[in-house]
Design a protein that fits this description.
β2 and β3 (93-104) form a beta hairpin. This protein has helices at 36-43, 52-65, 67-70, 109-127, and strands spanning 22-33, 79-89, 93-104, 135-145, 151-152. With 154 residues, the chain is α+β, with helices and mostly antiparallel strands. The protein has four helices and five strands; from the N terminus they run βαααββαββ.
Length: 154
């Protein structure tokens, strides 16, 4: 049974009013592939637009906070925290990790995924003047805890 479709086939927001709040965490990942010299400039905060990682961190947090305005039928969650971290992956890729947490009645997977996506797009925007060939190659949920079921990739 689809949870976002009613008996008439119409889209509906799931009613979570009767559910009890639990501590929920989700971790998402995005990878952005770029030329090695672009990655070096990004990591050294040597871009014409400024510190790309600082901008992407703030954008990722804002993306997570605004998920319900971007994704239809998502609940507006009272996020407790959002963390955005970056890892160099080889000489031509940046890994973006977003962890979102809340104590609420529904999960934070979409917030973590949206944060990772927005952070990746922000890095692209910050670096596009020197590398238009960048690619967001991957976006995926790594893990979630809380609620009825947990998920751990692998």
């Amino acid at each position: 049974m689809l949870t976002h479709i009613n008996e008439n086939g119409e889209a509906v927001m799931v009613d979570v009013g009767e559910k009890q709040p639990t501590r929920r965490t989700a971790r998402a990942y995005a990878r952005l592939r770029m030329r090695p010299e672009t990655l070096t400039a990004l990591l050294n905060a040597n871009l014409k637009k400024g510190d790309g990682l600082a901008a992407a961190r703030i954008a990722g947090i804002m993306g997570a906070k605004n998920t319900s305005a971007l994704i239809p039928l998502c609940h507006n969650l009272p996020l407790d925290s959002v963390a955005v971290d970056f890892e160099k992956e080889g000489d031509d890729a940046l890994g973006i990790f977003v962890t979102a947490t809340c104590s609420y009645k529904t999960g934070v997977e979409m917030e973590a995924l949206t944060g990772a996506s927005v952070a990746a797009l922000t890095v692209y925007d910050m670096c596009k003047a020197i590398d238009r060939g960048m690619r967001v190659e991957e976006l995926r949920l790594l893990e979630k805890t809380g609620g009825k079921s947990d998920y751990h990739e692998g």
